[in-house]
Amino acid sequence: MKKIVITQSNYIPWKGYFDGINQMDEFVIYDDMQYTKRDWRNRNQIKTPQGLVWLSVPVEVSGKYFQKINETKISDKNWGKQHWNMLKQNYSKAAGFNETKDAFEELFLNNNFELLTDANQAFLQRIMDFLKIKTPINRSEKFELHDEKTQRLVNICVDCKATDYFSGPAAKAYMDETKFAKQNINVHYFDYSGYPEYPQLHGDFQHGVTILDLIFNTGTNAVKYMKSFQ
Description:
Layout: E1 3-7, H1 15-22, E2 26-29, E3 43-48, E4 51-56, H2 79-91, H3 97-100, H4 105-110, H5 116-131, E5 137-139, H6 149-159, E6 164-167, H7 177-181, E7 186-189, H8 211-218
Parallel strand pairs: 1-2, 1-6, 2-5, 6-7
Antiparallel strand pairs: 3-4
């Protein structure tokens, strides 16, 4: 049995994203897909005294209507410093901030990424290292990709010798599972319900914010509030 998740990269995503990776034998970053504006590819939310605020990586999109995620260029090299300043401003008083900030500060301050996909992967790997998630990462650009979207996923699964494919629950609405069945690949959907709350700053509890909120608030106890580690 080999379990695989194939999904687009997100910027500092929420805890459910990493719970999914932690259950897999392989994680394929699916950044050959078209870049979509106002999505999770280049942004995520943090909590502040004024409510939820977006941290967005600035990217070049003008006139590039059909560019892929892995072709999308970062447009301002100072974004990392700005994001780190925002994180410090809003999480410096969080219980786990001092014990965890060194794991992330250097990456924010000294990165020099040209492409969004490379920045996303670097942050994903750093967070995985902190959580001690050992799942290997691959990238879809290394595979020969089919034109039809579902068949693309099936072919990647076959190339990776996967027996079980996992996806977010939203994919149920459009996934053609028969194409997986023809290759004897089982399809599963993540269940994101039932997460416990953790001590969180700034108002009402929010599950869907960046995982850095969990890490800065709970420190090395972060995995106690994630389902895949139980």
